[in-house]
Write a structure and sequence with these properties.
The N and C termini lie far apart (50 Å). The chain is globular and about 65 Å long. Helix 7 links the parallel strand 5 and strand 6. The longest helix is centred in the N-terminal third of the chain and has 19 residues. 45% of the residues lie in helices and 14% in strands. It folds into three domains: 128 residues, 3-Layer(aba) Sandwich (Rossmann fold), CATH 3.40.50; 88 residues, NadA-like (Rossmann fold); 79 residues, NadA-like (Rossmann fold, 3-Layer(aba) Sandwich), CATH 3.40.50.10800. The chain has a four-stranded parallel beta sheet with strand order 2-1-3-4, sandwiched between helices. A four-stranded parallel beta sheet has the order 6-5-7-8, sandwiched between helices. Strands 10-9-11-12 form a four-stranded parallel beta sheet, with helices on both faces. It binds iron/sulfur cluster. The site of iron/sulfur cluster has 13 residues, from loops. The site of iron/sulfur cluster (SF4) has 13 residues, from loops.
């Protein structure tokens, strides 16, 4: 066997990736990660990997890894010419808005998002006309056009803090597009949906379907279990768990606590990553696959980097990008 390939297999094995492979497959994975690494250097490319991606992407080729907030923040500082975004389209658009001179790609044509698709810029203009003077606080899971109509962007990592700041100056706010996250945040802040916060009807196809009854089933089976859920889950589910937050918050919670078992109520990729990062801890992943996130594979990243000229670049019209950037920068300012 080629020496470079043998060393790559050793590196991936030390990261625990062999545990996800059937016999012999680690060699195929290593051949791809080696090739991608070479192509990244040739093209001065950086790979951003969201935590819902598969571990072979996150650990095998990810240069910048994290939740939506961390990736948006980190990619502002990259010196690469090309950003390959292993995440969904709205995330890549955000990267493009923050890095207009760089070429940004998503290695899948199917990497959309049900939340992002739930609202258009025309919907936001209508909401603003119906509620004049109210600030529009927008979850990052939206298109560039929707961001451009917004006053401030938030992610699950900072939404509560930023909304709290907004309520210092306003009695009411518009929060779009996730109705579950909006209702969960309203509850955490002692606000009433409809009265203090105007919500939209978007939902995440992954998180909307988790059922609270299952949390009780696992609690009985694993005494001492701590249940963590993403803020995009419905309120009844959030009521049944011990901790609500974004994926970054959930990872930090796991790192800083010592429960007998953790129930992770979110996309499956997060559970896989947690198991690899903390092999000594016990995880039960009550998880679902995001079809959009999982449309990206090592093969699709390699194909893109072999021939970027034939791939579709992520673009945002300059006028839209300029307005959206104001709302994104407001998030960085308020989240700091
Ligand atoms: S998990 Fe939900 S919110 Fe995240 S990308 Fe998939 S559909 Fe969108």
């Amino acid at each position: 066997m080629d020496r470079a390939l043998a060393e790559e297999i050793k590196r991936l094995t030390s990261l625990g990736l062999h545990r996800r492979c059937v016999e012999g497959d680690i060699e195929k994975v290593a051949a791809l990660t080696l090739e991608i690494d070479r192509l990244k250097r040739e093209r001065n490319a950086v790979v951003c990997a969201h935590v819902y991606q598969t571990p072979d992407i996150i650990l095998g080729i990810g240069d910048l890894v994290g939740d939506s907030y961390k990736l948006a923040d980190d990619c502002r500082r990259t010196s690469a010419d090309v950003i390959v975004f292993c995440g969904v389209h709205f995330m890549a658009e955000t990267a493009k808005i923050l890095n207009p001179s760089k070429k940004v790609y998503v290695p899948s044509k199917r990497a959309g998002c049900s939340l992002s698709e739930a609202i258009t810029a025309a919907d936001v203009r209508k909401l603003k006309a119906e509620h004049p003077g109210l600030p529009v606080v927008t979850y990052i899971n939206t298109s560039a056009e929707v961001k451009a109509e917004s006053d401030c962007i938030v992610t699950s990592a900072n939404a509560e803090r930023i909304l709290r700041r907004m309520y210092e100056k306003h009695d009411r706010v518009i929060f779009i597009p996730d109705r579950f996250m909006g209702a969960n945040l309203a509850k955490a802040l002692g606000k009433t949906p409809g009265k203090d916060i105007v919500l939209w009807h978007g939902t995440c196809v992954v998180h909307e379907r988790f059922k609270p009854e299952l949390v009780d089933v696992y609690r009985k089976r694993y005494p001492g279990l701590v249940a963590l859920a993403h803020a995009e889950c419905p309120a009844e589910l959030i009521k049944a768990v011990d901790f609500m937050g974004g994926t970054g918050d959930m990872m930090r919670y796991v790192e800083s606590t010592d429960a007998s078992a953790y129930l992770l109520v979110t996309e499956c990729g997060f559970g896989e990553l947690a198991k690899l990062r903390f092999p000594e801890k016990n995880f039960i992943a009550m998880c679902r696959l995001c079809p959009y996130m999982k449309s990206i594979t090592l093969e699709s990243v390699a194909a893109l980097l072999r021939d970027p000229a034939s791939a579709e670049e992520v673009t945002v019209p300059p006028a839209v990008a300029a307005k959206a950037k104001v709302a994104i920068d407001r998030m960085f300012e308020l989240a700091a």
